[in-house]
Design brief:
- Residues 4-296 form the Inosine/uridine-preferring nucleoside hydrolase domain.
- It comes from Absicoccus porci.
- It holds the Pfam family IU_nuc_hydro.
- This protein is α/β, with parallel strands linked by helices.
- It has one domain: Alpha-Beta Complex (Inosine-uridine Nucleoside N-ribohydrolase, Chain A), CATH 3.90.245.
- Helices cover 39% and strands 18% of the residues.
- It contains 13 helices and eleven strands.
- Helix 1 (12-21) links the parallel strand 1 (2-8) and strand 2 (27-34).
- It starts with a strand and ends in a 5-residue tail after the last helix.
- The structure holds beta-D-ribofuranose and calcium ion.
- The site of calcium ion (CA) has 10 residues, from helix 1.
- Beta-D-ribofuranose binds at residues 11, 13-14, 38, 77, 80, 121-122, 147, 156, 162-164, 237-238.
Length: 309
């Protein structure tokens, strides 16, 4: 079974990603690290606990990481994810869970011990801090998947900026400069993963409890997407990064040298040298194609048909 660490900022779609990961037998989640992003890090920690409680997996350790981006002032995404970061579902707090160490310490200690896949579905501040503190631990990462960036698709918080890279572009730049190969699950593929009311209606008879829970945390997200871009549904980015690890045939793309812009109107832009102008070794696999129906079939079979739900 593949050992996985999920670095996240829950977050509505991060929560769906955790639900998918923890219902999938191909992967063993050995830890969840939290970064400030959609929510401040303390709120992200509390939200992760709420999700783990719902799926009866409070055995999974959670570690809080960075509270601020490296250089830019922190900007949350509560306008997108609701005042509680979980679509204003205001789930009950989960008391009595202590973190044993901070996220950077956990990553530093764990990554050198055993081959591990990292799935980063928030800003990459924790990994930039890890590179500064313990570069050997970062180099030991077996496979690094990042939900973030965009190749040809429009940005979601500026014309060219995807939120995770826009939020901490210096961190993203450092990670791209140090990675052997990063798998970029950007908006080109995630914008196609649109959860609709029709999909939820079809899930309901199979598993009302889980479908009700998903409705509860996504209803705010539906409204946000309608106001923002008149979309009848919501884009659930983060679970696609998990699905890609479970079944890499869900996405395909190409390898290219990639760097991240940090300032001005292009802040957070992922610049992909698709035509090899710079003759630099490829450091990224840019995923551009996605089998949408394969994704939803996988999500349904794991999260909705899951026997313990
Ligand atoms: C990314 O930004 C966040 O709002 C989502 O959780 C996702 O990780 C999409 O741009
Ligand atoms: Ca996220």
């Amino acid at each position: 079974m593949r050992k996985v660490i999920i670095d996240c900022d829950p977050g509505i779609d991060d929560s769906l990603a955790l639900m998918l990961a923890l219902s999938s037998p191909e992967i063993e989640v050995i830890g969840i690290t939290i970064v400030c992003g959609n929510t401040p890090v303390d709120m992200g920690f509390e939200n992760a606990k709420k999700i783990l409680k719902f799926i009866h997996r409070l055995d999974i350790p959670i570690y809080k990481g960075a509270t601020q981006p490296l250089k830019k002032p922190y900007v949350d995404a509560l306008d997108t994810h609701g005042a509680d970061g979980l679509g204003e579902s205001f789930l009950d707090p989960v008391p009595g869970y202590e973190q044993k160490m901070d996220a950077i310490e956990f990553l530093s200690k764990t990554l050198k011990q055993e081959p591990c896949t990292v799935i980063a579905i928030g800003p990459m501040t924790n990994f930039a801090q890890l590179i500064a503190k313990d570069p050997a631990a970062f180099e030991a990462i077996d496979t690094f998947i990042s939900m973030g960036g965009t190749y040809k698709a429009h940005g979601n918080c500026s014309p060219v900026g995807e939120y995770n890279y826009w939020e901490d572009p210096e961190a993203a730049k450092i990670v791209y400069a140090h990675t052997k190969m990063i798998h970029m699950i950007g908006l080109d593929v995630t914008r196609q993963i649109v959860l609709t009311h029709e999909i939820l209606d079809a899930w309901e008879p199979k598993n009302k409890k889980v479908t009700d829970f998903i409705r509860k945390i996504t209803s705010f997200y539906f409204t946000f997407h309608w106001h923002q871009e008149h979309l009848k549904g919501c884009v659930i980015n983060d679970p696609l990064a998990i699905a890609y690890v479970i079944d890499p045939s869900i996405c395909s793309g190409f390898k290219a040298y990639t760097d991240i812009e940090t300032d001005g109107i292009t802040r957070g832009e992922s610049v992909v040298d698709a035509y090899d102008f710079y003759h630099k070794p490829a450091n990224a696999k840019i995923l551009t194609q996605v089998d949408v129906s394969k994704f939803f079939t996988l999500f349904e079979s794991r999260v909705i048909d899951h026997e313990e739900n």
